[in-house]
Amino acid sequence: MTHDPAFARRLVLIALCYVVIFWLCVLTVYFAPEGSDVAVWWPAGGLGSAMVLLSPPRYWVALLAGIVVVTGMANVVAGRDLDVGLLFGVSNASESLVLVALLGVRRHGRPLLRAPEDLPRLLLAIAAGAASSGTCAGTLVAVRLDGDFVETWTSVTAAHGAASLLIVPLALFVGDPRASLTEGTRAIQVIQVVSTLVAFAAIHHTSQSLPLSFLPLPLLVWGAQVLSPRALAAEALAAGLLVTVLTAQGGGPFGTGADLTNSAQAALIQLDLVVIALVSLPLALNVSQRRAALREAVAVGETYRRSLTESVIGTLLLSPADDGLRVLDLNEPAGDLLGIGRDDLLGRHWAEALGPHGTTVVDAAREMIDGRSTSWERELTVEAEPARCVRIALSWVPDTSSGDLIVAQLVDLTEHRAAQRDLEQERDFNAALLSATTGTSIIATDRDGLIAYVNKGAEQLLGYQPAALVGRRHLVDLYDADELRARADEMEHDAPTSGDWTHVGADGRRLRMSVNVTPMRDAGGRLLGYLQVSEDVTERTQAQEALRAALDKERQAVDELERLDRSKSEFLATVSHELRTPMTSIMGVNELLSTEVVGPVNDRQRELLRRGSRAGQRLLGLIENTLTLSRVESLTDDTHHTVVDLRDIVVRTVETTEPLCPLGVSMVVDQPDGPTARVMGDANQLERALVNVVANALKFTLGGGVVRVTLQGDPPDEPGRAVVTVEDSGIGIPADEQSHLFERFFRASSAVQASIPGSGLGLAIVRSIVEAHRGEVTVTSRLDEGTVVRISLPLLDQG
Amino acid sequence: MARLLVVDDDEDIRELLSIALGVAGHEILTASDGPEALDVLAAEPVDLMVLDVSMPQMSGLEVARRVRATPPAPEPLILMLSAMGDPDDIAAGLAAGADTYATKPFNIKSLTRAVDTLLRGRAS
């Protein structure tokens, strides 16, 4: 069970049909002429056929069985025996079966009635159905009711055929939109229907017996003009009903007044009905077909009209005339493009509107008219305001209803051409820009690295003609193959992206190029290719290498000097050490002899041993000083410096040198109380320097002299420094020798003359130590008056 | 009266020290290099070594370290004697195991006194 509302509606309709069929059967039997076994007109058969036709084929068997039952029951109700009634039902159903079989078997959908050509098949199906019904009924009457077969066959066939002829077409029109087309207004249609039905009623009225049954036929013709086929078929059916019913009442041309036999009356009525159907149906179909064709033609015409008026392409319809091209019609875009209003162009010669190009277009049209060409196309400048660039295409359309035509189509290319011109200018500018950069190589490739563009710079640097590279070589072909293999880990997608790379020029020349490769993409991010910008850095690379080589050489020289310096110091240390060992033996032997542990020594021998020991001591002093100097000179860094208070140095120096103080010489120390003389330095070294100076002063000051040691922190004449001065009243140094005082092994002539021992290294050591502390040492002296040694050191930052 | 071992590659120094320390009443053994000194130590009991630092084959520092690592019985005192007198050199010598450090050239009197002082310290 389904609850489909359409299905339910269909069931209701079918039930309604059966009810109507039932009552039609009852009524028709009732209205049958007296003494006749069959009715004159059997609309129940047509209605049954219509019902089956309008239903889907899968219902047909059930519907046909229903017809047997319903019409059979109606016959029984109308007074016939049950078996006779049912057999009449079979007769009815056989009509529908044959009709539907002949008409309904179509490939697509249900049968349609649209053209006069469809009529013969319909008439054949109706006739066959009616004949089938007549045959069934005739056989039944002849066998069961002892009647005449031929008479029954004739009357039943005629009654069924006449009824079906009025009902089945109406069924075929139901649901076909073509069958509802009309031309008349509602009022005219109402007048037509009313007048037709009134005419039929009047002619067949009981008060009228003149043979005027032909009279309504013109009304039916009129109906075919103003009514739809469906309405006309309904009107014909209504008319048929009127004729049947009124004649049964005894009225009309076939009524009692005509004094006809039953069968003659029936035949006349049936003929009348057939005529009504055959007059109205073909006419209605013809008119309907004409209407449909007209409607289609109007629709096609509208399409054509709109394709002209609503097109965005400017279009003109031109008629070739002896004196040019006359404008038949044009659309709005065409008028806009030409800068002329539609009304100003219609009927005029188009050449006039085109200005100087008019003759060109007219000549082209003439060639078409002469059959030398069928189309023509040209880009022209139209002198409208502003001037426009228009592509005009002409096509030749001969033999239309308006005669030969030329269709002109106009497309505005102004903006397109302007954009194209801008693009070309930009391209020219870019090309000029790339060509102008002669010092830089610019190479573009496609996605696969195939060279697509080579600028002037690349051409000149590499020595290739562009034609030898573009489309022929890949970018990597320009590189040194060995280097590409060696530096594969620096590449991306098997090609270098940046850095310095060697290129090989056309002549095999090798160029060092600083390379930068960037991918080029369109606005959507799609890879278009690669752009390599590179510069020749061959000379730069060579210069850098030369510089690096020079720096290396310099560094080697410095290293060598340092090594030499170190080995010199080591040499001095070794020599001093090696000298000491034999000196130890000499001194030890001397001492052993002097102490007489190995035997007695006389005074003369003792004096000689003393001289030997003294010479040995001098030699040892010399060795000691040499060793010290070499050590000081090799200690140029100040990483082991600490904060040193110079007052402590002075105190320790005085303590160390006091034993050296000769008889009659006094030592005076003058130094501040506060901690204002602090420096950064090596306390041992500073003490050694000051001891050397003070020892010298004592050594060169003869009896009765004074050695004054003065320490000043931050003195007014030398702010930010600590100054130690050692002043003696000794023998002094000749002025011309003072510049040599700090030279190694230099001894002043005054010292030598006074037989004062010394190695000539003391002041050299002092200067080395002081300078290692970023200090200065100066000596001022006057012969026979004394000497002043001044040591100045930077004070420790008070902050 | 103690047994002393004088180790020095310089024959003159060996002789000088033998005479000076022998006069002071000690029994003197000598060795001209490190390995020989170690051999003597292994064979004879020695109270004190006078050990030179700069020697071929094995330095005095190494000899002192070996003696201190595997000391013979009785364990000898070590007086290290070197021409190198920098504080760093002295520190290195003491670190290697020397009991005292004297520099060349030396004064015979003070050296003899230093030896006596060391031996006295041992005796007490």
From TrEMBL, chain A:
Main localization category: membrane
Keyword Transmembrane helix carried by entry: yes
Catalytic activity: ATP + protein L-histidine = ADP + protein N-phospho-L-histidine
UniProt EC number: 2.7.13.3
Gene3D superfamilies: 1.10.287.130, Histidine kinase-like ATPase, C-terminal domain, PAS domain
TM segment ranges: 12-32, 38-54, 59-78, 84-103, 123-145, 157-175, 187-204
Membrane association type: Multi-pass membrane protein
Residues of the PAS domain: 425-483
Compartments, record wording: Cell membrane
Keyword Nucleotide-binding: no
Enzyme class (EC, first level): transferase
PAC domain mapped to chain residues: 497-549
One GO CC annotation: plasma membrane
Histidine kinase domain span: 574-797
CDD domains: HATPase, HisKA, PAS
Keywords: Cell membrane, Kinase, Membrane, Phosphoprotein, Transferase, Transmembrane, Transmembrane helix, Two-component regulatory system
Gene Ontology MF terms in the entry: phosphorelay sensor kinase activity
GO terms under biological process: regulation of DNA-templated transcription
Name listed for the protein in its UniProt record: histidine kinase
Lineage, uppermost ranks: Bacteria, Bacillati, Actinomycetota, Actinomycetes, Propionibacteriales
UniProtKB/TrEMBL annotation, chain B:
One GO MF term: transcription cis-regulatory region binding
GO cellular component, one term: cytosol
Start and end residues of each Response regulatory domain: 3-119
Residues carrying 4-aspartylphosphate: 52
UniProt-listed InterPro entries: CheY-like_superfamily, Sig_transdc_resp-reg_receiver, WalR-like
Coiled-coil region(s): none
Protein name per UniProt: Two-component system, OmpR family, alkaline phosphatase synthesis response regulator PhoP
Pfam families per the UniProt record, alphabetical: Response_reg
Signal sequence region: none
PROSITE patterns (UniProt xref): RESPONSE_REGULATORY
Top-rank taxon: Bacteria
Keyword terms, alphabetized: DNA-binding, Phosphoprotein, Transcription, Transcription regulation, Two-component regulatory system
Gene Ontology BP annotations: regulation of DNA-templated transcription
